[in-house]
Each structure stands twice: as structure tokens, then as C-alpha cells.
Amino acid sequence: MKLRVNGVELELGEGGSLLEAAERAGFKVPTLCHHPAVTARGSCRVCVVEEEGSGVLLTACNTPAREGMSVLLDTERVLEARRKALQLIFSAHPAHCEVCEAANACRLKELAAELGISGRELPLEQDFRPVVDANPFYARDLSKCISCGLCVCACQEVQGVGNYEMLGRGGYARPGTALDTDLEASACEFCGLCASLCPVGALIPKPYLHRGVEEKKVVTVCPYCGVGCSLILKVRENRIVGVEAGVENSVNGWSLCVKGRYGLDFVDHPDRLRKPLIRKEEGLVEVDWDEALDFVASRLKEIRETHGPDSIAFLSSAKATNEENYLLQKLARAAVGTNNVDHCARL
Prior knowledge:
The chain is α+β, with helices and mostly antiparallel strands. About 25% of the residues lie in helices and about 20% in strands.
């Protein structure tokens, strides 16, 4: 179908939204509660656009585009409506930007700067909630929650757990577990998807806190199980400062388990072995790989000749690739002559 966005005519497939049409035309529409991983809700009202002719203000993220439609993205009515929406959100949001853990990653703060508002145009009526810091993965400061519903939708639609639901009404609505029980006693898997999508400082990942903003992003594969989830590593000064999902056409999409998202601290751990060690008279001594491999080969040969091939066992690892694990069992069966092969994922 054909439609116009800010005077630009374009074609869009059936079922596309006005937000998709605007992005297709190269325009940027601000959003707070929208994410491509979940169903659009339009709850924040920040993405409003104006239908040319009728003058109706529509939420771009969840309004389907129609044949012959013409919308305007930056009229004064649209900009004023966006400012009012943000001002209403700020009226129940604490003014702690200087000490907020979200810092410059806060989408609300970013939009306020873009639209030229201070966030204190309306009287503050804050719904104070204490910070809940009861697990090692992320903290919850629901005083900063803007009730966008991203965490609820992500848990229900993407992760398939359905641990969160919106409790309360209106400006007092906040995400919580069934009967508002403690998170640790709920069905939460601590996958961190909700925290990764939160546009403000209501859900704060703890393992990578205060490591700064990334200088680059590196796409890689999770080193844990054999699923092969794709990771996007946020890297600063050659250190991991964050992990996210969302690699196109990946097996995991936007999902990660608790290990894939929060379990990579071993990469920079000071106790991590970076060179092979051989036990000598003076204890464990660092050696190069040639010496280490020669030593392993000679000892395996000596043990096989003395005690037979079945005195040797091989333990493969989920942190290796399928191809590397195949080669290990080939070494065990073809070279050493034993079927004593096991894998850490079975233990």
C-alpha cells in the first residue's frame, strides 16, 4: 500500500505500523515503551504523529498504516503533545538524574533533552518505593518506573515465563509478581531481559555497574552450553562492560539465560589462567604451548603403554564448539584407543 510520511511517498507491506513507515522513510520518531521484541502498546504516548487532514493525533507504534494515509511527524501540535506526555511522566519521576544508576543510558532523560523540557514543569507527586536489592543480578528501584510495561511484555511474550504483571492502576501501576511476592520466591529465571529493555533506572543490571559506556560492540557466541546463542558484547578498554542480545537471525533472538547475560565475569578475572602450567619440582610453572602439548602427548603415550588405553578418559566441554568436541572424541577413539569420553553438560 502507498502512504505519505512528512510529504514522502512510500510503499509499505500490509500490517506495518506508522512507526515502521516513518523509519522506512528515514525519519526518527521518539519512543519510550516500544521495542521490536514485543507487541506495541502505545502506553507512553511519546510517539504521537498527526494525521494530515483530520488533525487526529495517533500513536505511531501501534497504529496500522492504511492505504492513502498521510501523516506529519513534527508539527507544533505533535511536539507539544510529546512534551506534555513527558512532563506527565516526569511529574511522578524522582529528580535524581545526577546519582541515578542509569546515567546517560536513560531514554527518558535523552528525550527530555531532545524536546527541550526540564522535567519539572508540573508539580512532583512521586510514588516512593524502596529499592529492592535482594539478588546478585539486578536491583529494582520502582520509584523510577514509568509504567511502560516493557518488562511485563518481554517476560510474557519473549521469555515465556510470565512472571511479571502490572499491579495497581494509573500512575501508581508498577510491575510485580503474582500477589506481589518477593522476586526470589517467584518463577523469575533472572535472565535479565526485563532489565535490558528498561528505558529508565527502574531495573539496573548489577554485574557491569559503574564500568562506563562501551567504546564498541562485538558480536560473538555464548561460551556456555551447546545452543549457540549470539551475544553482543559491549567493550570498553578491552573489558566487557555489558552484554545484550538481538543479533539478527540468531537462534536466541532477544533472549539470553542468566549465565549468558551475567556469567562472563571470568573473562577479566585476575585468577584466570592465561598460559599453560606444568607441575615441576618448584611447583606450577608457566610454559609455552609447544612445551605443554609435548608434555601432554608424552605422558598420554606413557600411560597408555603402561596401563592400557582404557586407563585414560577424556572430558569435553560445553565451552568448546561442536567441531572441537568432535575432534576430542576422535583423538580419544582413533588415536588413544578408548571410548571413555564424557561431557561436562551431562554431569
